[in-house]
Specification:
The protein is mainly α. The protein has 5 helices and no strands. The protein has one domain. Helix 2 packs antiparallel against helix 5. The protein starts with a helix and ends in a 7-residue tail after the last helix.
């Protein structure tokens, strides 16, 4: 390959990598990691899990979670809501992707 081909191919690889990195679904994943990191820095996740009731009683888990969120700082509440929104958007993206690539649909 000559020098021009090398430069062009390097640019093509760079653009391809940037497009994958900046994909809307990946941006949601990055924001989810950021929100989970923020939550982990503000709340002791280990203590929350230690105090949580057994998962065999879902009603108690839901009650515990709601009480924990309601009785915490406002910023933590915003982070929890943000995590919920990001998770909902990611689930929507995943379902749309599965729907588009379903093996049961005919072209």
């Amino acid at each position: 390959m000559n020098n021009i081909e090398t430069v062009v191919m390097a640019r093509v690889r760079r653009i391809h990598s940037l497009r994958r990195f900046m994909h809307p679904t990946m941006m949601k994943v990055y924001s989810g990691f950021l929100l989970f990191g923020t939550l982990g820095s503000m709340v002791s996740i280990a203590n929350v899990l230690a105090n949580m009731p057994s998962v065999t009683s879902p009603a108690q888990v839901v009650s515990f979670t709601l009480n924990a969120v309601v009785h915490t700082e406002m910023f933590v509440q915003f982070v929890v809501v943000g995590i919920g929104v990001v998770c909902a958007l990611l689930i929507r993206d995943i379902l749309q992707n599965l729907k588009q690539k379903s093996v049961f649909t005919h072209a």
